[in-house]
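REVIEWER CHECKLIST
Item 1: Sequence provided? yes
Item 2: Single chain? yes
Item 3: Sequence as submitted:
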Amino acid sequence: QVQLVESGGGLVQAGGSLRLSCVASGIIFRIYVMGWYRQAPGKQRELVAEITSGGVTSYADSVKGRFTISRDNAKNTVYLQMNSLKPEDTAVYYCNAEVRSPYYLRYWGQGTQVTVSS
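Item 4: Structure as written out by the authors:
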């Protein structure tokens, strides 16, 4: 069993910054892609950013240049640095990881709320 636990959400004014963290724990053979998704009220969950075990990153167009994803493989942790936040970034942010433990499965965290006030 693998658990993902997010932290770092909160309330921030537009233009501010937040840093999200997500730690994976449990029986882990290897973690492949780790990513962040978000879901705003009344909208579908969408990919924000993801990073491979080798450090290759990809971003949604809406966050390019403002958000940075990174990971520490030794700590089974992924981060999302969010700068220049906008009210439209308000959502529940979920961590996701593709893990072999020993089967290859995708796991989700419980989510952390990010609220950006105008």
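Item 5: Key structural point noted by reviewer: The CA atoms of residues 43 and 49 lie 17 Å apart.
Item 6: Recommendation: ____
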